Amino acid sequence: MPPAIRLRALDKRYPAVHALRSVDLEVAQGEFFALLGPNGAGKTTLISVLAGLAKPTGGTAEVMGFDVVRQYREARSRLGVVPQELVYDAFFTVREMLRFQSGYFGLAHNDAWIDELLDKLSLADKANTYTRTLSGGMKRRLLVAQALVHKPPVIVLDEPTAGVDVGLRQSLWAFIHRLNGEGHTIMLTTHYLEEAEALCERVAMLKDGRVVALDRTANLLRTGAERRLELRLMPAMLPESLSRRLIERRGERFVLAMPDYTELEHVLAELRRAGIRIEEMELRQADLEDVFMKLTGQAT
Amino acid sequence: MYGFRTLLYKEILRFWKVLFQTVMAPVLTALLYLLIFANVLGAHVQVYPGVSYTAFLMPGLVMMSILQNAFANGSSSLIQSKMNGNIVFVLLPPISNFEFFAAYLIASVVRGLVVGLGVLLVGLLFTDLDMAHPVWTLAFAILASAVFAAMGIVAGIWADKYDHLAGVQNFFIMPLTFLSGVFYSIHSLPAFWQTVSRYNPVFFMIDGFRYGFHGVSDVDPWLSLAVVLPAALISSWIALQLIRSGYKLRS
User: Are A80 and A155 in contact, with CB atoms under 8 Å apart?
Assistant: First the structure.
């Protein structure tokens, strides 16, 4: 069984930027995979190469074992892409767009599946509406529907929830999750790290065109960053003995590294000895954002 | 194959949905030319014996409308899709480069022919027109529209903004079609300009097309065919190579 996605030493150089630097990556069939990284890390370029919208300058990319350059027709027919930009064709209605998209993939009679997609994505009552009159969220869902008309085994979503309100985000995630449950491989990019954390089995982090971390989400969370203790102190000062633990100070708030809970007792004792009162205290598990910050040195 | 058929259908539907702008308006424009020139010049000018000036003018106007609209269709469709970003909808599917080319080309030819037919039908209200050699007429209509359809695809891919396209249309396509014998026979021009006209392929398109109607022309229709057919093949080849290379479509 070939992997859903396989990148080998993939390189993409634009005249002004080196967008991907020898990226190796494999996503197995059926995985729910997230690609994280700050703006300009190369996420969209990576997706563009997979989709045939950009040509690699080195290395290879395969979808379900088919090379995206040499076997572009086989590769593209197995891939559904939800682009990041909210693009639409103002000339046509929702149903027309979905019929065209089906036709482009060689499907002549696809109305049963189109209706099901419209229903699942709450667009059924908009079937005969011109796409230009749809709200942003509806346009986003139409893009998802368009990517799914040919039931592709591999679905790539570039920032699928950007600009989508909270309620809709939930239902969109539930839908994507169900697709994954039905056997579709999902690869997505997102800025919402908590969503990647909650949903994705495996995560790759990109920075400056390189993969800086690639592991199961759980492993990354375990190893990537320590637990943290956040304190609001009165007076707002830290005893000298604790200063080596300090990660960040925001006014009266101090964030301390806390690799092990057993050290909590020691910290509290030091504060009491120095006569400093604890106004607020919060113990926090590392999340992907912390891992991310640690690995890339910047926020998303 | 079904992908090609769908893209062709979508491209035809695209201009059909805005019929007023893409068909009616150019028909009206040609009709205005016909009214003005035929009325002003009709009584004074006779180009070929036994052919009224209005009847002479008609094929020229029909061909000019065919060419301008065949060019406009592919170029405006592509630039719009590029500007709006929805070009990805036709770049993501497994449509081959040749199918992509053929769909845009044929849709543009269809638009050119539909407008040409419209001009012809409306024009027939004002003048009688013979059809001496309908096969020549049809052959020149199709080949000439293919040349401009292919050039439209090239321009649509090349242009980064509407401004670029308007430049090509106004400074290249318009002079090329106007200075080609739409309104006159090149024999009525001074010798120098006759020579210049013979380097304009559009002259041969219109002259050959006119031969199909009147059975007379400035040059032998076979010579015109020998110019227009290679022009169609070369411009199509360039458009296809451009699509194959991914130029400005696939970075």
Answer: yes
When CB atoms are compared, the residue of B3, B84, B92 closest to A106 is: B3
Query: Which of B6, B84, B96, B99 should we substitute to test contact with A (largest number of A Cβ atoms within 10 Å)?
Result: B6
Pick from B6, B84, B96: which is nearest to A103 by CB? B6
CA A206 to chain centre: 11
Please name every residue paired with A246 in a beta bridge, in sequence order, or none if there are none: A256
Q: How many residues does chain B have?
A: 251
Tokens of A112: 């049963």
Chain A nearest-CA distance from B85, in A, is 6
Sign of the torsion formed by the C-alpha atoms of B88, B93, B98 and B100:
negative
- Terminus-to-terminus CA distance in chain A, angstroms? 35
- Lowest-confidence region among A215-224, B3-12, B134-143, B213-222: A215-224
Contact (CB<8Å) B88/A53? yes
The separation between CA A82 and the C-alpha centre of its own chain, rounded to angstroms, equals 13
The answer to whether the Cβ–Cβ distance between B94 and A14 falls below 8 Å is no
Rounded to whole angstroms, the Cα distance separating A90 from A100 reads 14
Contacts of B214 (CB under 8 A, 6+ apart): B48, B51, B55, B56, B59, B130, B132
Percent of chain B with pLDDT strictly greater than 70? 100
Q: Please give the single-letter amino acid code of residue B75.
A: S
Q: Name the residue of chain B whose CA is nearest to A75's CA.
A: B94
Give the type of residue at B242: L
Most confident of A162-176, B41-55, B88-102: B88-102
ipTM for this prediction: 0.88
Which candidate from B3, B13, B14 shows the least CB-CB separation from A105?
B3
Q: What is the pLDDT of residues A231-279, one digit of tens each?
A: 888 888 888 888 888 888 888 888 888 777 778 888 888 888 888 888 8
Q: Which residues of A are less than 8 Å from B245 in CB distance? A: none
Partner residue opposite B96 with nearest CB, options A73, A103, A107: A73
Contact A53 B6 (CB under 8 A): no
More confident residue, A234 or A78: A78
Segments of chain A assigned E as strands: 5-13, 18-27, 32-36, 58-63, 66-67, 79-82, 154-158, 185-189, 202-207, 210-216, 227-234, 246-250, 253-258, 277-284
Coil, strand, or helix at residue B81? helix
Q: Position B57: which residue type?
A: L
Q: What is the pLDDT at residue A191? A: 72
Q: How far is A182 from chain B (nearest CA, A)?
A: 23
First to last CA, chain B: 26
Q: How far apart are CA B55 and CA B52, in angstroms?
A: 5
Q: Which residue of A has its CA nearest to B10?
A: A100
Under an 8 A CB cutoff, do B250 and A74 touch?
A: no
Please state the pTM of the whole predicted model: 0.87
Contacts of A107 in chain B (CB under 8 A): 2
